[in-house]
Write a structure and sequence with these properties.
By secondary structure, this protein is mainly α. The protein has a two-stranded parallel ribbon. The longest helix has 15 residues.
Length: 192
């Protein structure tokens, strides 16, 4: 009698622990507006320049913050889309550092999404329409992992480059602080 009960309990525990490594290959992000209503803030764009508006985040949460596979995909996409070229593996360079606590446009998922999709006036290209929405959200989750904002069991545990930085899951959680923006610069986050 005890064996079937223990087996059932073990199965339920294993089933509950699967979310961290869930691999959703075709899950839509579902956290962006249906219509393209946000203006592009950056005039730079990769490849062929697109005109028009882009989608913005509806809520201030990332659909992938609890999914280790998606965060690791975001890490890979961060390299593939050459984010390292400006952000130097998160340590800053041409673009701002992403591993510290200073965030000019806000560190919450909606503002990071806006920075990627809309771009920023001081040089961040507008990737809206160039990168699929689910990949943008994976990059958002990885960027948050860079400053220790995700759980340690979700953040990547090893470096894929020769950079001597700590892996994301070994970094301390940064106390995030927003820098003061000039009054004429919007953050681009969700409309509340």
């Amino acid at each position: 009698m005890k064996a079937p009960l223990l087996l059932t309990l073990a199965f339920l525990l294993l089933l509950g622990g699967c979310e961290r490594e869930a691999r959703r290959f075709s899950t839509p992000a579902r956290n962006q507006s249906a219509d393209q209503t946000a203006d592009r803030s950056g005039s730079l764009q990769p490849g062929v320049a697109l005109t028009g508006k882009v989608r913005q985040a509806l809520r201030d949460d990332s659909p992938y913050d609890e999914n280790a596979y998606a965060v690791n995909q975001g890490k890979q996409l961060f390299r593939w889309y050459n984010c390292n070229g400006c952000h130097s593996n998160g340590g800053g360079g041409i673009g701002p550092a992403l591993m510290d606590g200073a965030w000019k446009y806000g560190s919450d998922p909606a503002n990071i999404h806006a920075s990627i999709v809309q771009g920023r006036p001081e040089g961040m290209p507008s990737f809206g329409g160039h990168i699929p929405d689910d990949q943008v959200w994976q990059i958002v989750a990885y960027v948050r992992a860079m400053s220790g904002q995700l759980r340690k069991d979700v953040a990547p545990s090893r470096g894929d480059t020769l950079s001597p930085t700590l892996p994301e899951n070994a970094r301390p959680r940064e106390t995030l602080r927003a820098e003061q923006l000039p009054p004429d610069e919007p953050t681009g986050g969700p409309q509340r």
